[in-house]
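DM from R.C. (forwarded with permission)

"hey, sorry to bug you on a friday — could you get me a structure for this? deadline for the figure draft is monday and I only need the backbone to look sensible"
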Amino acid sequence: MFDKFTVIPSIDLKGGEVVRLWRGEMDRATVYGQDPAATARAFESEGARIIHVVDLDGAIAGTPRNLESIRAIRAAVGCVLDVSGGLRTVESVRSAIAAGADYVSIGSAAMLNPPMLAAACREHPGRVFGSLDVRDGRLAIKGWRETSQLVVADALERFQKAGVAAVILTDISRDGTEIGVDIEMYETIARSSETPVIASGGVARIEDVVTLSRLFQHGIAGVITGRALYEGRFTLSQAIAVSI
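My reply, with the result:
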């Protein structure tokens, strides 16, 4: 999948709507659309190879809540879908894949229930991403509402041992803020990871995409961007063009 640097648009779902949060705060959501499938079609038309779909309600509830929207997205596009949010059991992973996910991203369960992560990787080899959500150097879990005692190195080792295909590294303090990416943090963690890293959080300008793409040889396989696209800072096609 990650044979070249990949720009990944994000569709975050809350109550069936397309939203973006400010630093992961559910009560600070900006609504960008009521038709997730239409949003997905627009991204695919601009060249998206993969779309990152986040079930925000599921992340809080601990079980998927927007499967109907995910099925609608799957019916609308042919590109690859990565689904996250509330996937804390093997059964919930199965439900996301049945709804149309090509990949699933597991975060909280990886920290709270390592055997579940390992079981999901065995059952769906090559189709599981690990989610590494960092706030002020600590790992956040359960919809970013709680903090894990694990450090980043421990989490990376756990993901590698389980056999995840990639690690999505989210800088929560910058997520949805458009204040720019922490290049040093991403590069440091990517260099220490034996698994490809996808950067997420804080993309503000197309220059952020260019800078991250230059780290492809050092383990940054791609970048997830949301609010910057919805706010028109740049288009997906422009971001793809400058990262090739």
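R.C.: lifesaver. The mean pLDDT is 90.
me: no worries. The first strand starts at residue 6 and ends at 14.
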